[in-house]
Amino acid sequence: NHNRPPTDGYRQDHLANQDLENLDPAKLTPLTPEVISRQATINIGTIGHVAHGKSTVVKAISGVQTVRFKNELERNITIKLGYANAKIYRCENPEAGAGNYRSFGSAKADNFAQDGKTWQLQRHVSFVDCPGHDILMATMLNGAAVMDAALLLVAGNEPCPQPQTSEHLAAVEIMRLGNIIILQNKV
């Protein structure tokens, strides 16, 4: 019965409907709408040298400030792993052309209209924001253990490579992380 209230006690009408009576787990994939509506299915680590903008990029994409602890805020550095989810949408309007994508926080509806455009959920990703200080390399390695991909940030206003840029890249290569995107920041 589709009118039966959900077992968790509240409705989330903005998310994909999960009809548990007719759901076939064998057909679920990381890109199935019923899955990505509620759960991030790709873990992306932000890695690189200290102060190259890792946390800032995560906030720009997800809207979440990953630097949360008092000592991090006071010193303006990432010390512990930070986490943030974001939903990635594609514009469904034909006149928008290819490549018209936007990101929003995880609470956003799967499909919505905004500014005369219709947006549809494509991916639900989770960011693991890693510290860039050399003394926090062990923390970065803990974050790398759960990464499906990495976003290596490199500041364009400094010589390259900086020490932790090289160390972080070597670490994800040793861990055989095959999906790495290099983002030049601060240009």
TrEMBL record:
Coiled coil: none annotated. Gene3D superfamilies: P-loop containing nucleotide triphosphate hydrolases. GO terms for molecular function: GTP binding; GTPase activity; translation initiation factor activity; tRNA binding. Keywords: GTP-binding, Hydrolase, Initiation factor, Nucleotide-binding, Protein biosynthesis. GO terms for biological process: formation of translation preinitiation complex. Residues 39-187 form the Tr-type G domain. InterPro entries: eIF2G, P-loop_NTPase, T_Tr_GTP-bd_dom. One of its GO terms (cellular component) is cytosol. This is Tr-type G domain-containing protein.
